[in-house]
Amino acid sequence: MRTLVTGASGFIGAHMARRLLSEGHEVISILHDLTPSSTARLLDIYDKVTWCIGDIRDEQLVKRILGDYSIDYVYHFAALPIVEMGMRSCRPMFEVNFMGTLSILEAMKEATVSGKDIGLLYVATDKVYGPVEYGRAYKEDDALNANAPYELSKACADMTVRMYKNMDYVKNVIVVRPSNEYGPADLNPRIIPNTIRRCLKGFGPVIYDGVTYTREFTFVEDTIDALMLLTKKGVSGEAYNIGSGEQRDQKGVVSEILKWFPEALPDLQPPQKYSRKEIPYQVLDSSKLRNLGWEPKTSFERGIEGTVAWWGEHPELW
What we know:
Order of helices and strands: EHEHEHEHHEHEEHEEHEEHEHH
Shape: globular
Oligomer: single chain
Number of helices: 11
């Protein structure tokens, strides 16, 4: 199978590309920036992927790729993924996360008209649901009440993807809404890699005073298992939550990491301004996916152990 994996240089996309390559699929991707390090390089797949230089917002480029490489399936990961970035600058979030997705959909629509049905798995986020009462897990049929830049840009794309399926512009569409992802080779400035890097450099982990937000954390390889399963068994037009059931607040995450750095002392700091607008509680009901046979294999404790070990082997990235 020939696949277009957008965002294959990034964290989840690169892990997905590695799995597809290992199962004999051809992987094509779109590369926007040439950087000295990327998850694709760190996972040793960079030279195995066919890179098309350009931008997912370029609809003509996407159409060319779908045609030139006779793409059978699109895994759409490419996005600006950091909540804080959206708090600082809204327009790039919507241009990449929404308009980039629209470019892909329009290119796929043209393929449908020409007689080729290309499958699409769109990776949204649990944040599309917006705020919810504490203790309540999101379900797939909940309304999307996103009310911040990153969340709303992804919610717009989520709804648009499903609209294209409803209108029969694209025939085979799966939407996934994963929880917070973590694991080896995540170069994004998130709490887990940030904390591990600080500890490896001999600094204490930052804890923001008064921040008690709860998140669900899923090891990246478990998420890739879910995506592979949904490619085969998912119902077109449906959305699926992906969550491990492992819930932690900020102190819970840091405490687990500190088991591997017992001498590190936390650095208590006032919260960043953007964090005052974040969703306080995010946990998913993933029973719909589990009913298809998926179960997470990696506990939070084992996942953190493996992630710490990976960073320990890459001091050039600290």
